[in-house]
Amino acid sequence: MGGTPPRSPLAPASFPDLPVIGGVEFATIGAGVKYAGRKDVMLARLAPGTAIAGVFTRSATRSAPVLDCQSKIGGDSTGAAAIVVNSGNANAFTGRNGVEATKAVTNAAAKALGIEESRVFTSSTGVIGEPLPHDRITAKLEELAGSLSADGIADAAAAIMTTDTYPKGAAAEVQVDGQTVRIAGIAKGSGMIAPDMATMLVYIFTDAAIDQPVLQDMVSAATDLTFNCITVDSDTSTSDSLICAATGASGIRVTEANTAFIDALRGLMLDLAHQVVRDGEGATKFVEIHVTGAHSDADARTHALSIANSPLVKTAIAGEDPNWGRIVMAIGKSGAAADRDLISIWFGDVLVADKGWRAPSYKEEDGAAHMTGDKIDIRVDLGLGGGTATVWTCDLTHGYISINADYRS
Amino acid sequence: MGGTPPRSPLAPASFPDLPVIGGVEFATIGAGVKYAGRKDVMLARLAPGTAIAGVFTRSATRSAPVLDCQSKIGGDSTGAAAIVVNSGNANAFTGRNGVEATKAVTNAAAKALGIEESRVFTSSTGVIGEPLPHDRITAKLEELAGSLSADGIADAAAAIMTTDTYPKGAAAEVQVDGQTVRIAGIAKGSGMIAPDMATMLVYIFTDAAIDQPVLQDMVSAATDLTFNCITVDSDTSTSDSLICAATGASGIRVTEANTAFIDALRGLMLDLAHQVVRDGEGATKFVEIHVTGAHSDADARTHALSIANSPLVKTAIAGEDPNWGRIVMAIGKSGAAADRDLISIWFGDVLVADKGWRAPSYKEEDGAAHMTGDKIDIRVDLGLGGGTATVWTCDLTHGYISINADYRS
């Protein structure tokens, strides 16, 4: 990788001030997995009794750490737990070596923290197909375990970055019976981003006390409306992982009936998902695509993703070109039901196409004006039924090509 | 559109010398549909009795000319026929106006040539969603009809171009009972290219005498192995059309039993399909992806297209980076069956990955050496069964972004 790409023009002004979550401590270190001169491993220690839920990539070639995590989610929650993440190497498609590398890291973390190996969850992100130099990580675990701190979450967000141009964090507070429950989350991801899951790593921590099956249901449902509704380049990674840990340190119990907590968790996840899109490789525009009037929500989603993943739509947006013909094309090719002569399209508030052809009121300069902003809103009504969906993406620019034609060499 | 993009580095040295096909005459003219200073309309007149077969886009938003052609294929073949094609405007998503524009062109062509309107086939290619200025075309039809010539096929190939950087043609000869049957074809297309159908227009002419249903079966079968196996950017147009006309002027009858003719037709179509990929917008590498060992041919095709359409694979190729991890990723996300630990991958003759991880014999410099060529061969064996597929694509470069972020403005 050549020099660091510049910070995305769509980045938030600064990393948010994340609250300390009782029951979680962080440590980070530079282990030289691939990158020199930066921190590339993070350790999180979770208090005994922490419930841990997870959502993972559905890729048929998912990595050894993903398979290891999946086998551990839902196990006994009695003891303390840990999350170990390295950037620079995905430990994916590394065969038996990959399984052994994962085992070496989980074993070393368990020893360093004095916990059960079945409670150690690891993620690896970066290049696929190269053996993970796991000894560089295991050599640092004692030092990491000795430097844990309750306020290290910002450093953790930075340590898990690969081609990200900024660290991603979000927080929420929820009042439960007059007491405050806190949630904080971090994420990484900027390319190889597509649903099921978007290619990324996400770690969310709350001091609420939540039974593991309840937490799993909450996280799975929220993922479908957040991380599974974003796409940068239609490519799905082998390593996508979301882990949510509820430490219970607040002493406040949250159940499946607490809609305020569920909404707050989903809002936090949507915030992180949008931050990933805003860091889409080469992105200069944040794009929301809202489809209504489809036969079903599933059809609406198929159309929305076909638009969001179309290279011709994405390059038109990059060029600030209100080329609504390419949106028609993307609807036509999606495979979901559409009737050409019922389709209407808006750019922002501007009605562009009305029931199958250019709206009489439409002026190209109005569409062009909307495209000059850095938030693009595309709305499509299919005129067929009540199905709706919203997805988010970014434009496709020279920056994407520069980053990805030169990532590994 | 700014200046004309430079001729693709993958273009053939020159336009081939196409034979005159008895029973077909061509004329071209500059009608100013969109482009100034170039020919943008072509007319082909086909002798009475010509059998006409067609394959068209499956887009749900297909254009008025496509729908009109589809309704006419398979009709009575007694009278003379015509093909009228304009570039610059696709007459797609133009509502009632689009139907009227198509009707105006077919009507004017029928009058100018003294033939039935049911024997006039039209195609329009270019911008979607803008009303076709059909009067500019109809105003020229008498002049076109007056300038028909048997050797005008090369001009026709040029007149149908949009973002193409070179005209595309191919020819074949077949011996039938000691006599020669000729086939000549032209095509346009360079972006919005994906299967079902690849986004393009293709016109093929033969002097063989073939019954229409037989010709249709031949063309449909060959399309599945040629134009439906190429992709530039995964985008499918609203206008894709392939029309094949058998004039019978040679007096030589060809039936479904003539495998030499079928092979020659398929070979010619594959040649044209490859020429379209070689003119892929911004392309610098021609890529063949061959998948073996899948559960089924359909699964092999799904994997091959997932690899061919992956922006991360295509940018890696642009960067001459032997990043086989991205191929693993594309297999994993395709949805078709794969077992991570059985996958093998080759770049050219170089075994890169062997049954799930990097081949012990693999040296990065060997993979890198293959990537420096302008023909890239990627072979994947899934180790599951006997399914195979081959697809062709190109790399994704800064050139694609430049062309498509600035096409319409």
Automatic annotation (TrEMBL), chains A, B:
Entry binding sites for substrate: 162, 188, 199, 281, 404, 409
A single GO cellular-component term on record: cytoplasm
Site label Cleavage, positions: 198-199
Keyword presence, Nucleotide-binding: no
Catalyses which reaction(s): N(2)-acetyl-L-ornithine + L-glutamate = N-acetyl-L-glutamate + L-ornithine; L-glutamate + acetyl-CoA = N-acetyl-L-glutamate + CoA + H(+)
E.C. designation(s): 2.3.1.35, 2.3.1.1
Site (Involved in the stabilization of negative charge on the oxyanion by the formation of the oxyanion hole): 125-126
Top EC class, one word: transferase
Catalytic residues as annotated in Swiss-Prot or TrEMBL: 199
Annotated localization: Cytoplasm
Record text on subunit structure and interactions: Heterotetramer of two alpha and two beta chains.
Family of this protein: Belongs to the ArgJ family.
Summary of the function given for this chain in its UniProt record: Catalyzes two activities which are involved in the cyclic version of arginine biosynthesis: the synthesis of N-acetylglutamate from glutamate and acetyl-CoA as the acetyl donor, and of ornithine by transacetylation between N(2)-acetylornithine and glutamate.
Identification of the protein by name: Arginine biosynthesis bifunctional protein ArgJ
Organism: Pseudooceanicola atlanticus
Gene that encodes the chain: argJ
